Amino acid sequence: MIKSLPGDAYLGLDIGTQGVRAVVCAVSDDAAPRSAILARAARPFPPGTTVTDLPPGHAEQNPAGWWVAAVACLRQVAAQTPPDAIRALSVTSTSGTLCLLDDAGDPLIPALMYNDARAGQEAAEVQAAGAELAGRLGYRFNASFALAKLAWLARHRPDVLARARYVAHAADYITGRLSGRYDVTDYSNALKTGYDLAPAAGDRPEGCWPDFIADRLGLPVDKLPRVVAPGAVIGEVTPAAAETTGLRAGTRVVAGMTDGCAAQIASGAVNPGDWNSTLGTTLVLKGVTAQLIRDPQGRIYSHRHPDGYWLPGGASNVGGEILATRFPGADLASLDARAIDLSPTDLIAYPLARRGERFPFVDADAEGFLIPFGVGAGQDAADRETLYAAYLEGVAYVERLAYDTLSSLGAAGGGAIRVAGGAAASDVWLQIRADVLGRELVRPAETGAAMGAAILAASRTRFDGVAAAAREMVRIERVVTPRTGLTASYDERYRRFCAACVERGYI
Question: What is the pTM of this model?
């Protein structure tokens, strides 16, 4: 029998690209540590969720499949949790995914996913119409934005848009199934639908849907959701949803954030000057600043922090993909073990697996490079183990350049970096990154968007904001410090790396 808790529990639900994850985090009133993972679950989407046989550049999923996987996760964690322990829940999902729902909240057509690229022409039109907003907030509308997708639907599926009652995001649909409220979203999800996070007019300080959406694009603003801050209570789990999911009716449903923002919250990078690097297939940097950081080159854009700060971030195309591409089927643990002894290597790499880069510089034609440092060999003569270590270092050089770029734009912060992503599980790669960066790397015990959603669920229902919730709920698993004696070696290699980027016109 499951015993009661000396505190409360908070549930985070992440609707990913292939399935759903759920985490329940218990927060104790007096015991140490103050938080612990009480339950977790993961379910793939059922067959048929992802739409196949689409034209190139199209990406669609059936939201009903999201709900099936979500229900399975919720029933599993509810069965593992003491009765009535879960006080609040929050939902996170992909940024820019768009759903059209009818009066009952049912999807009219499959959702246009975050990576659907069909709206290229419409994105240019949206950028022209919203240039003032984009310039003021420091980003550029592209086909990944939900507003461009909405413009495409208005042009190509006007009949469906006319029948729609709600223009919703992926998280909004699941929140609606739980609470009955399909008309509310948070302002991180709303950003790519054109929401103005910081209106110039003093009479609308909290944000608004800008006039150009209706006046210049002719889109139905009345179908757009009401926007609230992440962490705000939207509603409660309905009796019908409780019966379906196993949750308690009346459990508070709290506004979440996009998955990238939620993952940052989970890392504990929540105060001004904090930064997080998530390294998986690609490298994503996100941080917290007191003021909005604008980049004329469009390499970064900023979400709004639930506590009133800003969340600038940028994504590189380098990351673990280079290892999968260059070392298919290899025993990476064995290569890791040798890499630590081989570093610093005499090779300097920009480890792009394919053409094009988006941060720390934007160049659609950029290609990776591998050059000798001092007396050394090039790529053809490099042995497999040395080449592997050089790619680990190369990702770290890109990461350092990215942080230097952020600093040049006015973003403060030179302390420890919170780390997440699949590559954070490699202690060797963490060590090499710490050596190259010259900074401590801090790995939380629990990362991922579902954990971030659980923190958001507690942020205003138990704590006084996200920072206070993260302080109590994020536990640190490992701290990696730079190895002594390697600073000068890596500084010189990093200077050569930057010089190679300048020579190629990248920076």
Answer: 0.89
Measure the CA–CA gap between 124 and 120, rounded to whole angstroms: 7
**Three-class DSSP labels, 273-341:** CCEEEEECCCEEEEECECCCCCCCCCCCEEEECCCCCEEEEEEECCCCHHHHHHCCCCCHHHHHHHHHH
Residue 265 host element (H or E): helix 259-267
Contact 5, 26 (CB under 8 A): yes
Is it true that 7-256 and 268-440+481-507 share their CATH fold?
yes
CA distance 39 to 23: 6
> Residue 144 CA to chain centroid, in angstroms?
14
What CATH superfamily classification does 268-440+481-507 receive? ATPase, nucleotide binding domain (3.30.420.40)
Residue 205 pLDDT level (bands cut at 50, 70, 90):
low
- Considering the domain delimited by 7-256, tell me its CATH architecture: 2-Layer Sandwich (3.30)
Rounded CA separation 130/311 (Å): 21
Please tell me the distance from the alpha carbon of residue 505 to that of residue 501, in angstroms, as a whole number. Answer: 6
Q: Residue 412: pLDDT band by 50, 70, 90 thresholds? A: confident
Domain boundaries, the chain: 7-256, 268-440+481-507
Q: Which residue has the tokens 């997708």?
A: 149
Long-range pairs of 218-223 with CB within 8 A, sequence gap ≥ 24: 218/154, 219/147, 219/150, 219/151, 219/154, 220/161, 220/167, 223/161, 223/164, 223/165, 223/166, 223/167
Confidence label for 198 from pLDDT (cuts 50, 70 and 90): confident
Contact 144, 192 (CB under 8 A): yes
CA 472, CA 455: separation in Å to the nearest integer?
Answer: 9
Alpha-carbon gap, residue 32 to 475, rounded angstroms: 11
E strands along 373-488, which residues?
417-420, 441-444, 476-480
